[in-house]
Amino acid sequence: MPKNDQTNYGKIDAQVVKGKEIWESNNCMGCHTILGEGAYYAPELTKVIDRRGDAYVKAVLMSKEPWQPRGRKMVAYAMSDEEAEAVIAYFKWIGKIDLNGFDRIVSPLAKDKQ
After folding, report:
1. What is the residue-wise DSSP string for the chain?
2. Which residues pair with 80 in a beta bridge?
């Protein structure tokens, strides 16, 4: 790693990796963005833990019913406690990446709501 690494690389552990794998295997970027990449159907999630907190995110991930905030429906993933905790670990890790001054809300849709 370069000396000026801003990726928070040293904090990646097995749970973060598992959360990333869950993120990818469920195609979360098909609806959400993270670090500006992905779709704009649903909220940007780079700093979701800062905005919503662990409990809210966990409730969404573990919900057995489709989550429908503001009329947009999210698939009911009904994740286990272990899976939800892994995704939260991934969100916490990515949320700590130094964005080098870029706006923490990168979705134009999310900016409209500020």
Report:
1. --TT--S-GGG--HHHHHHHHHHHHTTGGGT-EETTEE-SSS-B-TTHHHHHHHHHHHHHHH-SS-B-GGG--B------HHHHHHHHHHHHHHHTS--TT--S---HHHHHT-
2. none
What is the chain's alpha carbon radius of gyration, rounded to the nearest angstrom? 14
Q: Name the most confidently modeled range: 35-44, 60-69, 74-83, 105-114.
A: 74-83
Higher pLDDT among residues 63 and 101, named by residue: 63
Residue for token digits 């969404």? 60
**What is the C-alpha separation between 81 and 58, in angstroms, rounded?**
8
Alpha carbon distance 61, 8 (integer Å)? 24
Q: pLDDT (tens digit, 9 = 90+) per residue, 80-102?
A: 999 999 999 999 999 988 777 76
The answer to whether residue 8 scores a pLDDT higher than 90 is: no
Q: Assess contact for 40 and 23: CB atoms under 8 A.
A: no
